[in-house]
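To whoever picks this up:

The parser on our side crashed when reading a file containing two proteins. I've narrowed it down to the boundary between the first structure block and the second sequence. Both blocks are reproduced below exactly, byte for byte. First block:
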Amino acid sequence: MHRHYRSHYRVIPESPRWLAMRKRYKESEEILTQMALRNNRSIPEFRNMRNFVEEEDRKRGMSKKFTYFDLFRTPKMTMYTLILMYAWFVCSAVFYGLSLNIKNLAGDRYINNMIGGLVDIPAVLLVIYTANAPWCGRKRTLFSGMLLAGITLIGVLFLKLAEKSLTEVAFGQATVALAMTGKFGIAVSWSASYLIAAEIFPTLMRSIGSGACSIAARIGGIVAPQFVFLHEIWSPFPFIVFGSIAIISALTVIVLPETRGKPMPDAIPEWSWTSCKDSKDSKHSELPMSDIHNNKVDIDVLDDNHLEQSSTEILLKCDQGQTKEFFAV
């Protein structure tokens, strides 16, 4: 396993965006140059990239060490952080809870365990397709998986209420089918949550944001066995809890922005709780990364920067999957 990761470490280059924000310009420029050459594109003007980083350094002081408190700089950022943390909590609690609750399902527990593991494979393959599809994207994939898991798991309750009209075998098989469908949905959601969490947080806070979500997921894994014990009170009780929290998470995910094909944020927003909108400085800082990419540059807003061509053009196109050849070496 260790050798497997070491082989990936040597093949996959460091993120040019991260290197640039850390002022490791030479390494960033070398990687971007290789990307441009392999994709038959012109080499960008790196001076603009340095100007942007130096401007960010002047305004905010990039030597500062960010903490988890910085995830709550603005109401919008706080909302996104809490929604993602809750989504990861739900994914972990439901995923591990259903896995542990397999012992309480009808039929052979070993076959049920095998089925529970197999449903994860098509779930991941589906996310690879839908998360990058123009008609779906990350947000809808996450929402659909959560909603599917919630509806099917709540369906166990109605199945229990109609138990008298079903045979014992039919009831057991239907319960297993709903439980496995719910596990498939939550596996889809968990895979999609990794993507959207990595693309919402700014570059220098991405690891902190993902870490906060991971903490929430670990809490979900801790409480999952406790939810399973509710089976002793009433057999559908664990499914009701899992389905309810999944549906609530699906509704909160609607607020999140779609990140597919969008430039990943770099600038850290100023502390501001007076409005849900980002401050003027934050919007100014995002222009070199977003508006220039979309060819919508307001020169009056850029003031002394006067950027003629975004030096992060190649980097932004990496986010949109246009540098696959570089990683296929």
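<<boundary where parser fails>>
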Amino acid sequence: TQSTWEEIVSIVNAEVLTETTALHLEALRNFVDVFGQDRKAGEQWLVTLEQAETYLPGPNEKLRRKVPLTVVSDRQFCIVVDPWRDGRQMLGQKEVRRGRCSFFQFPGERLENGIQQVFILGAEEALLLTAQEACDDVDSDGKPVKRSPGDKWMIYGPREYVPTVAVQILERRQSIPLDENEGIYVRDTKTGQVRAVIGGTYMLAPDEELWEKKLPDAVLEKLATQGDLRDRGSGQKAARDATRVVTYSVPHNCVVQVYDYKSKRPRIVFGPDMVKLGPDEQFTVVRLSGDKPKRANVITTLCVSLGPDFMTDIVVVETSNHARLSLQLAYNWQFECAVGDPVAGAKVFNVADFVGDACNAMASRIRGAVASEPFDSFHKNSSSIIKTAVFGIDKETQKVRSSLSLKKKKLIVKRVEIKEGEKGEKKKREERRK
């Protein structure tokens, strides 16, 4: 019977405990619970089915929550932070629990990264590990070894692995299969040295990492047009893997120059061949004149053809009687360079723009020769006048040479032809009067 001085604050129902459910309780004040345990104000504990089938919280305690059973299978593990041991909570410590097991999380306990799967490594896989604190471990041969904080090592498959609380898994690695024309750039994290590994199957060492090689935009564009950056299946442009060794297929009768910025020496590669760039090497990008009349930086290429080939240009000339003519000329040229001769091949790259340089030199000669001829004379003998101007006269035979040799860049011009000529307006002899 309720007394006059009593008041019903709330009606509390008993909680039913099962094998998969526990009760998380907290003491509101100091008291002795129904199991005879002394509880301090603020203390938290669990009540499970082993203690009672039903439980009715008293006025001195509060039900915080119902705790579900944590189940870990035989292919799983978990790391418990701040675990309870022998009735005491070990703050700042961790504990690895591998399945098959089940438990209730005590108050204050939490799982780091939840329930995790056991690491299963194949024959071509490995784990990169590091020690977070001093610990005892075993090496790949099963021998005991002491690990210091910061040590790095790897374990290799096939095997299962569950890390201890003192070990952190940095990454999962896999062997990289490489064809004889494929490679990767590998950097030593201790020395900083970068090297290229070509061919075979390679697994990175604990102190190694993949290194990304940066290339200029002009080189990336030429590699993309060659097809090295296209997906073989769809034919669409694929994202470049910067850790892969850069390769370039040199066409037949062409030459490529690669410069090593570490040794400060160029390397000449003749086609047909494949160039594999080292970590400190870069392609020599060649920018040539193009169009008619010639304009600088029209053509961008990585390789230079050795010829024979031809180039055309439009040259505006003026005769001695001030008749202006626009001549479209064609030059047959080739480099005086034997395939496999690195010294001669290096001279091909002595002049940055051999097309513009050669066309300007021959145009200057032609303008000088035409300027001393009247229009009628040039009109009748234009071919011989231009050939004489370009090739010159042999001092011994007093005949027109058969070719023009530009020795500085090993370039030979063997033939010059007039494709088209247009007559311009005749200049007046007198300037406009002011």
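After patching the parser it read the second block fine. The first helix runs from residue 217 to 226. The chain is about 10% helix and 45% strand.
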